[in-house]
Specification:
Layout lengths: L6 H5 E3 L3 E5 L5 H9 L15 H9 L4 E2 L2 E8 L4 E10 L2 E11 L9 H16 L4 E7 L3 H9 L3 E10 L2 E11 H7 L5
Parallel strand pairs: 6-7
Antiparallel strand pairs: 1-2, 2-4, 3-4, 4-5, 5-6, 7-9, 8-9
């Protein structure tokens, strides 16, 4: 549950090179391309294969923006949309937020945009919300994301098999606690 009800503080998040913006109806074509194109997830996430109708239903039902979940486009400061990032409250633990990220356009990968998006979202979750920890599941083969999480102070917890839209994946679970975030504040965050 979001502790700060100020909608504007969470709907747009600025960083030095990226801007995270709440999913809007005008973003539909980009979001549908990201959820339907196999290259958009780099082979590390299942494709949701959203239709126009399903996206519109989710927008109306506040699926992407509610007290327990928020979804953002990732754009450059120049306005080009390059990816998606979202968080949701862990079903069994309301003090834990889960994050999923994808830089959908391959030419924007490995340049630090995903790292920067995760930094500003984690910072916002700990500074403006009541979460005590943030977790990320990553595909076993996604070494770039694992290096990023290590760099951001996340701790590797366990290798696991997890369900990704009905597909079982071998992966790794990482966690950053609020106390560890506080120790890193000013250094990374």
């Amino acid at each position: 549950m979001i502790a700060n009800n100020n909608e504007s503080i969470m709907s747009v998040i600025y960083a030095s090179r990226v801007v995270l913006k709440k999913f809007e109806p005008d973003d539909m074509d980009f979001i549908l391309n990201c959820t339907n194109c196999p290259q958009a997830a780099g082979g590390f996430m299942s494709q949701e294969k959203l239709t126009h109708e399903k996206y519109q239903q989710r927008m109306v039902s506040h699926f992407y923006w509610n007290d327990k979940a928020r979804a953002y486009t990732i754009g450059t400061r120049e306005g080009e949309l390059i990816g998606l990032i979202r968080y949701w409250e862990k079903p069994a633990d309301s003090r834990t937020a889960l994050i999923a990220l994808q830089i959908c356009l391959p030419q924007w990968r490995r340049q630090g945009y995903g790292t920067e998006a995760q930094i500003v979202l984690v910072k916002r979750l700990f500074d403006c919300c009541r979460y005590g920890q943030v977790e990320v599941h990553t595909d076993q083969r996604n070494v770039a994301e694992q290096r990023c999480l290590d760099k951001l102070g996340f701790t590797f917890l366990d290798s696991e098999v997890y369900n990704d839209l009905g597909q079982e994946r071998s992966g790794k679970l990482y966690r950053l606690t609020k106390s560890e975030y506080g120790r890193l504040h000013g250094y990374i965050y």
